[in-house]
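Reopening this one. Same input as before:
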Amino acid sequence: MKTLKDSIEINTTKEIIWKWLLKFAENYCEWHPSHIISFWEKGEPNKVGSILYSEENIGGELLKIRARLTDLIPYKSYKYKTLGSLKFLLIGGSFEIENSDKGVIFAATLDFRMGKFLSKIAKKTMRKIIQHMIEEGENLKLILEKRTK
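Same output, byte for byte:
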């Protein structure tokens, strides 16, 4: 397994980040210009077991993501597992929130089914995903710090 993680310090509160996460589908396209669409496909929004569908463009490739919400700890973590054929590569991910000296650390994690061999083959794609995660963190910082002022 290979885990990618990006974290960023945001000058805001856990409450503001959590409120944003609870409107994930509505906020998805604002978050990053390559995000295309997101909606709750099955179940109630933000309920464990509900399924979120999202599309984004990473490095010129359309990625269609279906994810089942697996765990929610208010103001702390938001975890999901991917579904469909994507689950054979991307196991799932999470968003974690913790206090810091200047506000909050927001961390995004993606877990992949990859050994060393597949990691070498997919190196270029992994770099694109890492860059995308960094951009998402920076964009979220801008969005939420504007709302905090």
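So the earlier flakiness isn't reproducible anymore. For the record, The chain has a mean pLDDT of 91.
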